[in-house]
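TL;DR need C-alpha cells for one chain.
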Amino acid sequence: MRFKGWVISVSLLTVLALGSFSLIHVGHVSEVMLVGLDEVRTFVSHGDWQRAEARANTLHEDWHRRRAWLQLFISHRDTDMVDMTLVRLIATLSIEDPLGAALEIADADTSLRNLPSRETPAIHNVL
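>> reply
TL;DR here they are.
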C-alpha cells in the first residue's frame, strides 16, 4: 500500500512538473516569435521589403526548429496554423503587398498569442 502511495505521488509531481515546464516553454517561444514578428512589421511600415522578407524567413526557420518540441505539448493544428501564416507572410512580402502583409502579420500575431492560452490550466482546455 505504501508503494502505491509513492507511485501516485511521483506520478502527480511528474505531471505537474511537465505541465509547468510546457506552459513556461510555450510562453517563452511565443514571446520570442512575437518580437521577431514585430521586427517584420516595422520593416514593412518603413517600406524595407527585402529586410522584412529576410527577417520573416529567419523567423520561419526558427519556428521550424522550435515546432518539434512544441508539438509534444500542444496540438499539431495550432502549430500548423502558425506555420501556414508565416509561409503566407513570406509570400506576400515577396510581392511587396502591404495589405496582404498586414493581414498575414495580424494572423501570425493572433496564432502566436493563442499558443500559451492553449496550455493554461482551465476548464475549457480540458473539455
